[in-house]
Predict the 3D structure of the following.
Amino acid sequence: MKKIGSRTGIITAAALLGVGFLGPVSPAQAEDRPPTIEELQGDCDGTAYLPDGHTTGNTMALDACTFEEESSNTFLDWKAVGETVTNCTSDRGVIDQALTGSESWSSGGSIGGTASAVKSFFTGGLSGEYNWSHTVTESNASTIHIEPGRKATLTAGAEIHEKKGRIRVNYSSQLAGHYIWYINDVTISTPTGYTERGQDNKDCSETLLNGR
């Protein structure tokens, strides 16, 4: 049975996000300071073995990287698709125009609000049909009806499953005095596959979903 220490180390995104090294560090160097987030990520997702990868120097002693959920949420993420049609001049009547467009949503993750592509986010974090490369695309081809004084665009929405928590990184030998380290402020999200289509139709004085 592998020994688990009573002390743990906590890495916060505010303190260490983006701090890394261009090459691997030795176990002796790792003993002198806490690991960075990039180094823990490198251990968890396997990039530590790449020529330019980051590593704690303790990769061979890695037991597991486990996402620990603290909260979850499911919501529809809407995006504008295709062009915007405006009817904001006094010399035009009703506009009926056929439009088409599409958008995609992909699985992803972040630490402290900064995007990150760590595959280990999805180890035990989301159910089996989702993975770190999961992508959903929705198309909308409709005729849009625009009264004078209005503007509009087509929209598409995808249901997103989001979880927030932390990643627990377990080692069988101590790393800078600890067997367990945590990467905090982690968010993982993935499209579930459910999508909807719609239209964003507003007064010319208002702003559409696409910012126009």
